[in-house]
Design goal:
The protein is 43% helix and 16% strand. It is of the alpha/beta class. The longest helix is centred in the middle third of the chain and has 23 residues, at 176-198. The two termini are 26 Å apart.
């Protein structure tokens, strides 16, 4: 297929921005829909100027608001229905955040890390999925912190602690360490979503979780207090000196290359900077995966009849 619509989150800054610019330059015939919390139209103009490609649409969407996600999806669906957008062929869910407390809430009252990193992408993918045309792909950004092992985090991030989706979505008392654990747990949840999707996708659409590794020079810790932010950014710079990290440009280029040339691994694979490697043993748990899929449907649509929650299997 010569031209497709590609929907992207998390491309405002950092390696996500580098990745989308690389994608656009390599496939200028595709139409890119970029979701951003504010001034998405301005972002689309910036990307068009940087790449020389006008086929970019900005859609305002705060991923911490289910209402905004649903409105954004409806805007995309109208574009597909009217032919203003070519057929849907790709989705990059790169948006993610980490905060300093597990008490912070989304607009709908959910713990913000789980709400943005897991529930928002579940809702986006679920509502867009019936419109995908193959060959298509879905890439969801995870992290090697989901292993919960010192060799991956050097102790900077606590191990994930899985619980029922309802409890994970509930704000609770907890400072920076528990917020960091919530981040690792959310990235484990992303892999669970990836595996659940493999049992629901048509054969010509693949889904992958992607680990970018340690990325320096980003604004990832912008929500942290100044001293904490400086400490964390310094830690990441040290890892790059030690050969364990990449710059945002290097990481973005690697992600774009993976999407463009290397999505040949079996669907459901965990891609560590493009390499198909095993994710953690804990990340392979069909009961948890199915529970997350079912409960996410209820959490994003509380009034939805549970008997109709899993429409993608119909």
């Amino acid at each position: 297929m010569n031209n497709r619509t590609i929907v992207l989150t998390g491309v405002t800054r950092g390696f996500g921005r580098e990745a989308v610019e690389s994608l656009i330059r390599e496939r200028p015939r595709d139409h890119y829909v970029v979701l951003a919390r504010r001034d998405s139209k301005g972002l689309a103009v910036e990307l068009a100027e940087a790449t020389g490609t006008p086929e970019i649409t900005g859609v305002d969407c705060d991923l911490a608001s289910l209402a905004e996600i649903k409105r954004a999806v409806e805007e995309i669906l109208r574009g597909l229905d009217t032919g203003r957008l070519p057929p849907l062929g790709g989705f990059l869910g790169n948006a993610g955040l980490t905060v300093t407390t597990t008490e912070e809430r989304t607009a709908d009252g959910y713990e913000i890390t789980f709400g943005v990193n897991v529930l928002s992408h579940y809702l986006l993918v679920r509502r867009l999925l019936p419109r995908f045309t193959g060959p298509g792909w879905i890439v969801l950004t995870s992290s090697d912190c989901h292993f919960g092992e010192f060799r991956y985090t050097l102790g900077a991030t606590p191990a994930p602690r899985w619980d029922t989706p309802e409890r994970l979505a509930t704000p609770r008392a907890g400072g920076a360490r528990e917020a960091s654990r919530a981040y690792a747990t959310s990235k484990l949840g992303v892999i669970y979503l990836t595996h659940a999707l493999t049992r629901r996708l048509p054969e010509n659409v693949g889904v992958y979780s992607y680990n970018p590794g340690l990325v320096t020079g980003t604004d990832f810790f912008r929500h942290a207090p100044g001293p904490v932010r400086s400490l964390l950014n310094g830690f990441f710079r040290l890892q790059r000196v030690l050969g364990r990290g990449m710059t945002a440009q290097q990481a973005g280029t690697r992600l774009a290359e993976t999407i463009l040339t290397e999505l040949t691994a079996p669907t459901g694979s965990y891609l560590d900077r493009g390499r198909d490697v095993p994710s953690s043993p804990e990340s392979h748990d069909e009961a948890r995966e199915e529970e997350l899929w079912r409960e996410a449907a209820r959490l994003v649509d509380p009034d939805r009849l549970m008997g109709r929650a899993d429409t993608l299997t119909e």
